[in-house]
Amino acid sequence: MINFPPETTNPTEIISTSNFLNKEEFLKLSKQLKNIPYSEASVIHKDVEEFDLSSRSCKLKWVPFTEDFVWIYDKIASIIHENNSNYYRFNLQESFERIQYTEYNSVTKDHYGWHLDLGANDATSHRKISITIQLSPSNSYEGGILEINKGGITKVPKEKGLITIFPSYLLHRVTPVTKGIRRSLVLWVGGCPLK
To answer: For residues 190 and 37, what is the distance between their CA atoms, to the nearest angstrom?
Structure first.
């Protein structure tokens, strides 16, 4: 059982903000991402990282902590701290993981089954806030809906440039993409593990 910080104002709030990235930022990001190689998508079960296509299928890239990408890390950090102050008030310790660029393709029916971003191992136990930024126009793909369960299912709008912030202990999934390609950025921010 998770003990929420006593000052937490809304421990299950899902926050979405439109137009987080502008046209110039999309173009800049798209150019920069081309130079990063793809990695295999995996799922962490307890203390073992596994490749499990039944629960997760997608292509991804890891955005490095380099000078070229400082602008996107800073932009995300700013909105996270603002919303953490307004809603969660978690004790964040600037523990940013690398941004994950993710592609879900209809050809392979890519998806990510129900899961939590907060885990029990060292790699994920510190996660407190999860962030998703939609990069694809809503009419460029079908399916691929981010659904978050907080006692009822919330379907996050498929809107290019939308950033969605939610606690890492909320169950969520990406439904199978049935047409086109869904592109997004994903990031986790944490601090001391929740107990």
So the answer is: 26
